[in-house]
Design goal:
Pfam families: ATP-grasp_4 (PF13535), LAL_C2 (PF18603). There is one protein chain. The chain is an alpha+beta fold. The protein contains 14 helices and 19 strands. It has 4 domains: 103 residues, Rossmann fold; 155 residues, D-amino Acid Aminotransferase, Chain A, domain 1 (2-Layer Sandwich), CATH 3.30.470; 60 residues, Dna Ligase, domain 1; 91 residues, Alpha-Beta Complex (Aldehyde Oxidoreductase, domain 3). Helix content is 31%, strand content 28%. The strands form 4 sheets. An 8-stranded antiparallel sheet has the order 13-12-9-10-11-14-18-16, sandwiched between helices. Strands 3-2-1-4 form a 4-stranded parallel sheet, sandwiched between helices. A 4-stranded antiparallel sheet has the order 5-8-6-7, sandwiched between helices. The longest helix has 18 residues. The termini are far apart.
């Protein structure tokens, strides 16, 4: 339609996992302006004809929230967009500010602000009576010593971070003393009582405060002390009605507590029992680790296109989320040890038809270690399988088939 071809979306952040939005925009006949680093924009501009404008962000400061509002406002003034959509964590506040100033749909400034601060989340969820761990927000880790030692094990985390950065489980008094010695001057931290149970997330699409769709994702991690995610399994829970019901109810409670208006909710929780979920944290942006692609594959719809419809204040046609058509997963490879990555051979992955896509993340010559945050992971694969059991089996097979060669650290190394 001619009218639709004239509509413009401003996309704040356009990383690799945001390319689904650009594909969807092209299919919908939308014009897109992006706020991104020059390097990233150069990688996009010739591949996506829907791109019509660009405003740069400083490469060295792109991980900071405060780097994005000014260029986003500048591009918005130039394009006068019909919709604004943010991608990852550093883009949430800038996106919400532009949406607010232009009167366009979005999660709302309050939801965006709370989502970017775990201490604010704890306060809001406590105020509304939602289940969450006992916790303390402390300026210095040592100030929480008495409280923590009475409740070991505990988890220490920054109030604003992503990808498991700075998340650490502490199980003994000696471990606590070590953590205080290392992190006492780090700044405000959240200390939480450790919650046993399987890790999950809910991905929800929300329109004007109403939850339209939910997906349940099961997670496998490295376990303590850092809990780096190594497998996400979307479309989970079709045979677990109590878990699905509890997850949906928890998600709706979080949406209400945040005063969430329109957008994505990515809610992480643990559950020892199916009907007893406990909130870990929430974000109002595209989930990482290819989860949006997994949602699309598992439920058989264009999740990215649905999000653009939300941004345009349209209610998209979506499945119910409880009857997935496939099982989709994203697998991540952790280094078996510490050293210099000498070689990484994933040729066995390429031969598998159920591997939809895969790639390396770190190159030979990089210093590597068993994953302590998401940036340490060596490679990834998107899996598209008929059943959840097959997804888990394939993940084990691929992990075993990857060839990782490490060199000792006798020579200086480059990289992380």
């Amino acid at each position: 339609m001619a009218d639709e071809q004239q509509r413009t979306v401003l996309l704040v952040g356009a990383g690799v996992m945001a390319e689904g939005y650009l594909h969807a925009a092209g299919a919908l006949g939308l014009r897109v302006g992006v706020v991104e680093t020059p390097t990233r924009y150069a990688a996009l501009k010739d591949r996506f004809p829907c791109l019509v404008d660009f405003e740069p962000v400083d490469e060295a400061a792109a991980d900071r929230d405060e780097s994005w509002p000014a260029p986003a406002m500048t591009l918005a003034a130039r394009l006068r967009p019909d919709a604004v959509w943010g991608f990852a964590e550093p883009h949430v506040l800038a996106t919400a500010m532009v949406q607010h100033r232009l009167g366009l749909p979005g999660p709302g400034l309050d939801a965006a602000t709370v989502s970017r601060n775990k201490a604010l989340q704890r306060a809001e969820f406590g105020r509304t009576g939602l289940p969450q761990p006992a916790h303390r927000h402390t300026r210095r880790l040592s100030e929480a010593t008495d409280w923590a030692l009475e409740r070991l094990p505990v988890v220490v985390k920054p109030v604003s971070s992503q990808g498991s950065q700075g998340v650490e489980r502490i199980g003994t008094p000696d471990d606590w003393s070590d953590a205080v010695a290392r992190r006492d001057t780090e700044g405000p931290l959240l200390v939480e009582q450790y919650v046993e149970g399987q890790e999950y997330s809910v991905e929800a699409l929300v329109h004007r405060g109403r939850v339209l769709f939910t997906n349940l994702t099961r997670k496998e991690t490295t376990g303590p002390p850092h809990f780096v995610e190594l497998l996400h399994e979307a479309g989970y829970g079709a045979d677990r009605p109590a878990l699905r019901k509890a997850a949906d109810q928890l998600c709706r409670g979080v949406v209400a507590a945040l005063n969430m208006a329109t957008g994505i909710v990515h809610l992480e929780f643990r559950a020892a029992l199916d009907d007893e979920p406990v909130i870990m944290e929430v974000a109002v942006r595209t989930p990482g680790d290819h989860i949006m692609e997994l949602v699309a594959r598992a439920h058989g719809f264009d999740a990215f296109g649905a999000c653009l419809s939300l941004a345009l204040d349209e209610e998209p046609s979506v499945p119910d989320g409880h009857t997935p058509v496939r099982s989709a997963g994203s697998l991540f490879l952790s280094s078996p040890g510490t050293g210099t990555l000498a070689a990484l051979d994933l040729s066995a992955w390429a031969a598998r038809p159920e591997v939809a896509r895969h790639d390396t993340r770190l190159a030979p010559g990089t210093r590597v270690r068993p994953a302590e945050n998401s940036g340490d992971r060596l490679a990834w694969a998107v899996l598209d399988c008929a059943t959840p059991a097959r997804t888990r089996a394939l993940a084990r097979e691929l992990t075993a088939a990857a060839v990782v060669e490490l060199a000792p650290d006798a020579e200086p190394v480059t990289g992380a």
